[in-house]
Amino acid sequence: MELHVLGPVEVVDHDRATPISSPRQRALLGLLLVNAGRVVSTERILDELWGDEPPESGRRTVAFHVSQLRKALGDAEERASPPPADGPIET
């Protein structure tokens, strides 16, 4: 799996390119990549992606973006077990 970040952000897996067009998903992907191998809490994701103005349904919103990012990343991520909706995300 390759991540292309110069130009349009996309993930390439088995010659299939998947664009990551949502700004929040791109930010989430970057945050998880920078913290590879470490647990990233939901609170940290909310703080990093929304700062002082997190959405009211913060945990559900994070779970949604994680789910969408996993779908975009394809088979490699689908094999990983999803985190609990209110738990930390391990990279």
Structure description:
A hairpin with a 5-residue loop joins strand 1 and strand 2. The chain is built from 4 helices and 5 strands. The strands form 2 sheets. Strands 1-2-3 form a 3-stranded antiparallel beta sheet, with no helix packed on it. The chain has a two-stranded antiparallel sheet with strand order 4-5. Helix 1 crosses helix 3. The protein has 91 residues and is α+β, with helices and mostly antiparallel strands.
Counting DSSP H or I runs of 4 or more residues, the number of helices is 4
What spatial form do the alpha-carbon principal axes imply? Answer: elongated
Number of E-type strands:
5
Write down the overall mean pLDDT: 81
Largest sheet: 3 strands, antiparallel
Helix content: 40-55%
Task: Provide the β-strand percentage band.
Answer: 15-25%
Side by side, the strands of the main sheet go 1-2-3
**What is the string of SSEs from the N terminus onward?**
EEEHEHHHE
Structural class: alpha+beta
End-to-end distance: 15 Å
> Which residues sit in consecutive blocks of at least 5 with pLDDT less than 50?
75-82
Spatial extent as radius of gyration: 13 Å
Compact summary:
The protein has helices spanning 23-34, 42-50, 58-73, 75-78; strands at residues 2-4, 10-13, 16-19, 39-40, 89-90. It has 4 helices and 5 strands. The chain is of the alpha+beta class and 91 residues long.
Q: Which keywords apply here?
A:
91 residues; alpha+beta; 3-stranded antiparallel beta sheet; two-stranded antiparallel ribbon; 5 strands; 45% helix
Task: Please outline the helices and strands.
Layout: E1 2-4, E2 10-13, E3 16-19, H1 23-34, E4 39-40, H2 42-50, H3 58-73, H4 75-78, E5 89-90
Antiparallel strand pairs: 1-2, 2-3, 4-5
Helix pairs in contact: 1-3
